[in-house]
Amino acid sequence: MRLSQRLSRVAPSATLTLAAKAKAMKAAGQDVVSLTAGEPDFATAPHIIAAIHRSLDRGDTTYTAVGGVPELREAIAAHHSRDGVKYTAEEVVVSTGAKQSLYNAMQCLLDPGDKGVVIAPFWLSYADMIRVAGGEVEIVETDEASDFLAAPDRLDAALAGARVVILNSPSNPSGALYSAARMSALADVIREHPDVVVIADEIYDRFVYGDAAYVSILDVAPDLAERTLLVNGCSKTYAMTGLRIGWACGPKPLVGALTRLQGQSTSNASSPMQQGALAALTGDQTPVEEMVRAFDIRRRFVVGRLQAIPGVTCFEPSGAFYVLPNLSSYVGRTLPDGSPIEDTFPITAHLLHDHGLVVVPGGPFGAPNHIRLSFAADMEQLTKGLDRLRDALVAFG
Fold this sequence. Notes:
The chain is an alpha/beta fold. It has 13 helices and 12 strands. It folds into 2 domains: 5-43 and 286-395, Alpha-Beta Complex (Aspartate Aminotransferase, domain 1); 46-282, Type I PLP-dependent aspartate aminotransferase-like (Major domain) (Aspartate Aminotransferase, domain 2). Helix 6 (152-159) packs parallel to helix 7 (180-191). The longest helix is centred in the C-terminal third of the chain and has 22 residues, at 286-307.
């Protein structure tokens, strides 16, 4: 069977592939620790589940408006409004997860050959979403020395002739967080490129630790609202990954285009899950605060353990729930079986097959000498997984 050419531009999701592999190994009775998926290990709050049950009990099982029920869109608009930027329900579209909002945005904004700019390390789906829309990817490189933050001059060079730029703060996979001053510097650069649309992926905005504070580009540059699309959702903040509710807020013409495209793909997001999302946004936020406190404890534990492994350096994230340890000192060596280590792919394969530890290689994120670990796992699993990682690396000699 002949498949479309566009599919050849898309790679399977490394994180989902490895998570599925871990589940299959566990189902086969193997002792496996998986630190792969970006999925909180907390239960969805009872008041959210109760709202979904009530929705089902009253028969909310029919179609809604493609863009979402009015009360949820109004709640989302209020949630993201701020000084200088006031959203209305007409400037919101609810989707089947934030991932769908991002995908739809690329389809609506990019023509073949258009350039999309991403900042490395980046969530691996960004690049493939740009490519499947026919676009070309330009990467702004960063490193640990720069705290994985984009330098304004590098962003300026990348934006020449670009159509979209994706800003993700806090970042998956690095946990990097832009301060108000640094975000303002990026906004100054973006103003010099009036044809560029900003896609602000704010899915981790509540996962911020220590003295750090979350800053949206629209907090420091409300004048960019007419060419900025904010993307967010319930999956991370409210531990609702499988319930698939996300959204986008932005100028009416762009939101209208996303809604029109969605009308020819999935139509509306699940009716009962929209009611759960409404309860999440407007209800008790204590479960979120408790989860963030627990993640902060895990974050400091994981970073400390990683930094104690010989040859490993690890940037301390200020947000999200990932760490991106640097294994550069192991690249160029050989595995115990004599296989060469050219990047972290063979290391992660060795960890999986010989140590029962699943982590994600950094290559698909634009960080080939790193691995990504999620600390959205309980302390027992984190301890066991870090023990296995240490033992495996030390055995390399």
